[in-house]
Amino acid sequence: MKSVVVRFPGSNCDEDMYYALKDLGLAPEFISAQSDASLDEYDAIFLPGGFSYGDYLRTGAIARFSPIMAAVQTAAAQGKIVVGICNGFQILTESGLLPGQLMMNEVPGFICDETELVINQKTSAFTNAYTAEQILVPVAHADGRYYADAETLQRLEDQNQIVFKYAENLNGSENRIAGITNEQGNVLGMMPHPERAVETLLGNTDGQNFFKSILATVAAQGVN
Amino acid sequence: MRENVANPMVNEPTPADIQTTQLYEQWGLTPAEYDLIVEKLDRLPNYTETGLFSAMWSEHCSYKKSKPVLRTFWSKNERVLQGPGEGAGILDIGDDQAVVFKAESHNHPSAVEPYEGAATGVGGILRDIFSMGAQPIAVLDSLQFGDIQSKQTQRLVDGVVAGIAGYGNAIGIPTVGGAMNFDATYQHNPLVNVMAVGLLDQKHLHVGKAEGAGNSVLYVGATTGRDGIHGATFASVEFDSNEDQNRSAVQVGDPFMEKLVMDATIRAIREFGDSIIGVQDMGAAGLVSSTAEMADKAGMGMTLDLNQVPQREAHMTPYELMLSESQERMILIVKKGHEAQVQQVFNEADLNAVVIGEVVAGLDYQLRFNDEIVADVPVDFLTSAPKVNLPQVKPARLEQATTEQYQPDVSQPTQVLTQLLAQPTIASKASLYRHFDSSVRTDTVVKPGGDAAVIRVRGTQKALAMTTDINSRYTYLNPYIGGQWAMLEAAQNIIATGAEPIGITDCLNFGNPDDPEIYFELAQSVAGINEVAQKINTPVISGNVSLNNETDGTAIYPTPMVGMVGLHTQTDHITTIKAKSAQDAIYLVGQLQGQFNGSELQHMQIGAISGDLLPIDVDYAQGVQQKVLQAAQQQLVASSHDIAEGGLAVALSEVLFGTTFGATVNVDAPIEWVFAEAPTQFVVTVKPEQQADFEKLMSTDAVKLGDITNDGQFKLIATNGQIDAPVATLESVYKDSLCQQLQ
Amino acid sequence: MYLAKIKVTYKPSVLDPQGEVIKSALHRLDYETVEQVVQGKYFEVKLTASDLEDAKQLIESMAEALLINQNTETYDYTVEEVEG
C-alpha cells in the first residue's frame, strides 16, 4: 500500500494527514499540486485541509485548476481511493469529482469543535472497519454547509452515497451531510477531520478506523 | 522603465522648508531631536532622511522612553540562547532543540480597524518567530475590551475575533489560548496582545545581523505599497476619539501570502542555512527599521537601491518605500555568490526574492533612487535615539490607599457564586474561542479552557505549556504587587498542567509615560515582575512596550501582560483541570486569605475597585508551587486547577464543569473567603490510593476539603454559610452568559 | 481594450448567510424598512478582444469556468471599450 498527500499552496493539514497515514501504515509521500507527474504508483490519494490559494474567490475554486488535478481525475476514473478532507472536499466538488458544493456555514464564522458523526454507510470503502454507530470527529471550517439541489440530494440518498451525517446539524448542511462518495464509491469528500483523531495523547482515536477501512479496502483490491 | 516616470519626489518639501515649518513635529520628532540630527549630519536632513529618523526614533522602534526600565529585566540563565533585542527570545529545551517566543501588542491598529488590526498582529508576531529559523507552533491572544454591554465593544469583539481567526486559521498555526477580559478602563482603548511560540532545531538558529561586506540584501515576500506609513509613530501617540483620521495607517494582511513566505523562509534556512547570514521581519517602520537594525547590530553599513524594491503602486517615493508597513515581507542577508539558490526557493513558491542592496564596510547607510543618493546617514546614529530619562511620582491614589479590606455581602452564597460565574471576566469564552482553529498541526494536547495550553513536541516525550496573564485591576491598586502577582499567576497556570516554568515574554501596556505617575506605574510593575522572574528562574527573553494607551487624556489601567512558557519533560505529567472520578479527594493547596480589594467580587458588588493589596510572600508562593509541580511530576494528582478570579468557589465549579460529577466540601473559614482572591492557591483532586503519598509530599501546604461525588451537586459548607446548587445549573450560567451579554 | 464589470450573486433559492447577518445588523441600526440584503461579488476585468462580440464571449466563458459556481451562483455583466 502506498498513499500520497497532495500539497496545494495554502494547504495546512498536509502534515497532519501525512503523520496520520504514516502512523496507521498507509505509507504516505507528498506531492506538489504544481506537479504534472502521474499518480499511478499510489493506491490512495489524499487532498488535505487548509486554505488553498487563500480560499480566494471560492473555496477550492482555484486549486482545482492545479496541474496535479488531471492525474487525480485519472486515478478517480481508475477506481483508486481519492479522499478530500475539508478544503480537499471543497476542491473535489469544485472539480466535479463529487456533486454539490460547500458553502458558508449557516451562521457565518469558523467552527473548531468535535462533533458526533452518524456512520450512514457501514460498508463503504472508508467505514468498513467501524463497529460503532456514531463517532466523535474534529471539525474546523467556515465553509462547510453542504448544498445540492433536491434531485441530487435524492440521488445521493438513493444510491447510498452519503457516508457520514452530522448527529446535530452544526453548519446547516442539506440532509445533515458531512461526507459523501461518488457513485462508484471510491472518491470521498468530508468536512470533518479524521486525521486529527488518531492519537490517545491528543484525546481522541475515533479517526483510526477511517484509515484502517481504507487499508482494508486497498488490500481487498490487491496491492500494486 | 524608470525613464518614463516623472520624479515622484518633486513635490516634497525642501530641507529648508522642513526646518522652517517644523514639519518633523507632525511625525513625532521633537525640536531638540531635530537639532541634534542637523548637528550630527552637519547639514539639514532632506525629506526622506527626516522620515527615517522620525520612524527610527519613535518609541515603538527605539524604546527610548522605556529603555531605562527595560534594561533592568533579568534575561540570562543556563537556558537562554537569545535574550531581548532580536525578533524573539530563545530557550534551550534539550536534545538540541529550543523554544522561541515573543509577544507583541497591536492595540492602536485594532482600535481603528479591529479585523485587520488583529489579523496583522498575528501575522507580525509569526514573522518574528520564523525569522529566527523556527517553525511557529502556537498563537495565544490576550484581549482586553471595554464594557461588554456597549455596542462599540461588541463591534470590537466581533472584529478582533474574526481577524485572529481569519489570519491564524488560514496560515494553519493553532490559536491555543490567551485570555479575554472586559473592563470599562479599555472602553476606548482595547488591548490586543498576541504571543507566538515556535520550535527550533538549534542548528537552524538565525538572527537579524547584516555581517560581511559585499553580502547581498535580499527582499522577499509581498510587494510594497503605501499602506501603514508611519504606523510606528502612529503607535507612539495618544489617541483622539476621532478615529477616522488615522485609518490610512492600518495595514491589510494576507495570510495566504504569509503562509508561502513562512514555508519558503523555513525551507531556505533548512536547506541553505550556511548561505544565509541574517533574517529579519519587516515590521514597524518596514524597510528602514529592518535593514538599519541589521546593519547596526553587525557594526556594518549598507547601501540600498530603492528602484529594485518590488512595488505594488506606481510613483512611490523613497520616503514611502522606506516607511511602508506593507505586510508579509522579510529581509535576508545572503552570502555574496549564493543568492541564486536562495532566490530559487522563494521563486518556486511564486514569491518575490530580489537583491536590493549590499552590506558595506563602515557605518554609512545610503539609499539610492533613480541613480541619485537620496539619503546618507550614519547607521549607528539612526538606530540610537537620544535617551530620555523620565521622572516618576507615586500617584496620589496609591499614597492614600490602605490594605483594609472591602467587606463583601455574601448573605446569599449560592447566588453570589451564580452571579460571579456570569461575570464576563469569569464566564466561559468557549463560544468565541470556537472560532479559532486550536487543533491544526495535531500537536495540541490541552486546548483553550485549561489553565495553560499544552503542545507536544512531536517525536519526543516533551511538551510545552504556555499561557498569558493579565491582572490590571491589581496592578492599578498596587503596581509592584500587581507585577509580582501576574508572574505568580502565570507560573501557577503552567504548573497546574504539570510543567516547569522556564521563561517569559511580556507586553507592557501603559498610558503616556511623560506623565510621572504613569512612569512610576511602569517602573514599579516591571520591578515586581522582575523580582519574581529571578526568584522562580524564568528569564525575560523578549517583549514589547505599548505606551500612550490613552484616549482624550485618560489612561488605561497599567496593564503588564506576562506570557510564560513551561516545559514538560514527559507527556505523562500533563494534568488537566477537570475532575476525573468520584471518590477522588479534593484538596486546597495554599492558604485562603480574606483579600477582597481588587477582586471580581468587589467589582461586581460596587462597580469599582479600591484599596491596597496585601503583601505577597514570594518565597512561600514559590515553595508551594514547587510542591504542586513535584506532585504532578510524580503523577499524584488526578486534576489540578489554579484558583484565580472569583476564588475557590469559582475554581472548584470549573473543575466540575464538563463532567457529570459533583463535590461535597467543608471549608474551615468564613463563607466570604471562598470568593476571595490571593496568589498561589490551587484546587487539586487526588485518587484515594494516592492520598497518603500526596499528603506526605504537601505536608501543611494542602488541606483536604472533601470529595468528588456522583450526585452532580455542588455543596460547600463554610463556618458561617453554605453553597448548594446543581452543577448543571451553575454550568449553564457559566456557558451562556457571555453570549447573552454580547447580544 | 475592453473593460467588463461582472456581478456575481447567489441564485435566489440559495441561502446567503452574510446577507442575512447584514440585514439584521441594519435592523439593529434602526433601518427597519430593509427587507432583503444580497451580498455578491464584483469583478472588473480588463482584456483585449478582436471586437465587442469576442469580448462578450470571452467574459461569459471565463465567468462560467472560474468566476461562478453554477450550482449556486449567477452573474450579469456590462462591457465597454476603454483606453488601454
UniProtKB/TrEMBL annotation, chain A:
<comment type="subunit">
    <text>Part of the FGAM synthase complex composed of 1 PurL, 1 PurQ and 2 PurS subunits.</text>
</comment>
<feature type="active site">
    <location>
        <position position="193"/>
    </location>
</feature>
<keyword id="KW-0963">Cytoplasm</keyword>
<dbReference type="GO" id="GO:0004642">
    <property type="term" value="F:phosphoribosylformylglycinamidine synthase activity"/>
</dbReference>
<keyword id="KW-0436">Ligase</keyword>
<protein>
    <recommendedName>
        <fullName>Phosphoribosylformylglycinamidine synthase subunit PurQ</fullName>
        <ecNumber>6.3.5.3</ecNumber>
        <ecNumber>3.5.1.2</ecNumber>
    </recommendedName>
</protein>
<dbReference type="GO" id="GO:0006189">
    <property type="term" value="P:'de novo' IMP biosynthetic process"/>
</dbReference>
<dbReference type="InterPro" id="IPR029062">
    <property type="entry name" value="Class_I_gatase-like"/>
</dbReference>
<comment type="pathway">
    <text>Purine metabolism; IMP biosynthesis via de novo pathway; 5-amino-1-(5-phospho-D-ribosyl)imidazole from N(2)-formyl-N(1)-(5-phospho-D-ribosyl)glycinamide: step 1/2.</text>
</comment>
<dbReference type="InterPro" id="IPR010075">
    <property type="entry name" value="PRibForGlyAmidine_synth_PurQ"/>
</dbReference>
<dbReference type="GO" id="GO:0004359">
    <property type="term" value="F:glutaminase activity"/>
</dbReference>
<keyword id="KW-0658">Purine biosynthesis</keyword>
<feature type="active site">
    <location>
        <position position="195"/>
    </location>
</feature>
<keyword id="KW-0067">ATP-binding</keyword>
<comment type="function">
    <text>Part of the phosphoribosylformylglycinamidine synthase complex involved in the purines biosynthetic pathway. Catalyzes the ATP-dependent conversion of formylglycinamide ribonucleotide (FGAR) and glutamine to yield formylglycinamidine ribonucleotide (FGAM) and glutamate. The FGAM synthase complex is composed of three subunits. PurQ produces an ammonia molecule by converting glutamine to glutamate. PurL transfers the ammonia molecule to FGAR to form FGAM in an ATP-dependent manner.</text>
</comment>
Automatic annotation (TrEMBL), chain B:
<feature type="binding site">
    <location>
        <position position="102"/>
    </location>
    <ligand>
        <name>ATP</name>
    </ligand>
</feature>
<keyword id="KW-0963">Cytoplasm</keyword>
<feature type="binding site">
    <location>
        <position position="281"/>
    </location>
    <ligand>
        <name>Mg(2+) 2</name>
    </ligand>
</feature>
<dbReference type="InterPro" id="IPR041609">
    <property type="entry name" value="PurL_linker"/>
</dbReference>
<feature type="binding site">
    <location>
        <position position="63"/>
    </location>
    <ligand>
        <name>ATP</name>
    </ligand>
</feature>
<feature type="binding site">
    <location>
        <position position="251"/>
    </location>
    <ligand>
        <name>substrate</name>
    </ligand>
</feature>
<dbReference type="InterPro" id="IPR036921">
    <property type="entry name" value="PurM-like_N_sf"/>
</dbReference>
<comment type="function">
    <text>Part of the phosphoribosylformylglycinamidine synthase complex involved in the purines biosynthetic pathway. Catalyzes the ATP-dependent conversion of formylglycinamide ribonucleotide (FGAR) and glutamine to yield formylglycinamidine ribonucleotide (FGAM) and glutamate. The FGAM synthase complex is composed of three subunits. PurQ produces an ammonia molecule by converting glutamine to glutamate. PurL transfers the ammonia molecule to FGAR to form FGAM in an ATP-dependent manner.</text>
</comment>
<keyword id="KW-0067">ATP-binding</keyword>
<feature type="domain" description="PurM-like N-terminal">
    <location>
        <begin position="85"/>
        <end position="199"/>
    </location>
</feature>
<dbReference type="GO" id="GO:0005737">
    <property type="term" value="C:cytoplasm"/>
</dbReference>
<feature type="domain" description="PurM-like C-terminal">
    <location>
        <begin position="584"/>
        <end position="717"/>
    </location>
</feature>
<dbReference type="GO" id="GO:0004642">
    <property type="term" value="F:phosphoribosylformylglycinamidine synthase activity"/>
</dbReference>
<keyword id="KW-0547">Nucleotide-binding</keyword>
<feature type="binding site">
    <location>
        <begin position="105"/>
        <end position="108"/>
    </location>
    <ligand>
        <name>substrate</name>
    </ligand>
</feature>
Automatic annotation (TrEMBL), chain C:
<keyword id="KW-0963">Cytoplasm</keyword>
<comment type="pathway">
    <text>Purine metabolism; IMP biosynthesis via de novo pathway; 5-amino-1-(5-phospho-D-ribosyl)imidazole from N(2)-formyl-N(1)-(5-phospho-D-ribosyl)glycinamide: step 1/2.</text>
</comment>
<dbReference type="GO" id="GO:0004642">
    <property type="term" value="F:phosphoribosylformylglycinamidine synthase activity"/>
</dbReference>
<keyword id="KW-0436">Ligase</keyword>
<comment type="subunit">
    <text>Part of the FGAM synthase complex composed of 1 PurL, 1 PurQ and 2 PurS subunits.</text>
</comment>
<keyword id="KW-0067">ATP-binding</keyword>
<dbReference type="Pfam" id="PF02700">
    <property type="entry name" value="PurS"/>
</dbReference>
<dbReference type="GO" id="GO:0006189">
    <property type="term" value="P:'de novo' IMP biosynthetic process"/>
</dbReference>
<dbReference type="InterPro" id="IPR036604">
    <property type="entry name" value="PurS-like_sf"/>
</dbReference>
<protein>
    <recommendedName>
        <fullName>Phosphoribosylformylglycinamidine synthase subunit PurS</fullName>
        <ecNumber>6.3.5.3</ecNumber>
    </recommendedName>
</protein>
<keyword id="KW-0658">Purine biosynthesis</keyword>
<comment type="function">
    <text>Part of the phosphoribosylformylglycinamidine synthase complex involved in the purines biosynthetic pathway. Catalyzes the ATP-dependent conversion of formylglycinamide ribonucleotide (FGAR) and glutamine to yield formylglycinamidine ribonucleotide (FGAM) and glutamate. The FGAM synthase complex is composed of three subunits. PurQ produces an ammonia molecule by converting glutamine to glutamate. PurL transfers the ammonia molecule to FGAR to form FGAM in an ATP-dependent manner.</text>
</comment>
<keyword id="KW-0547">Nucleotide-binding</keyword>
<comment type="similarity">
    <text>Belongs to the PurS family.</text>
</comment>
<dbReference type="InterPro" id="IPR003850">
    <property type="entry name" value="PurS"/>
</dbReference>
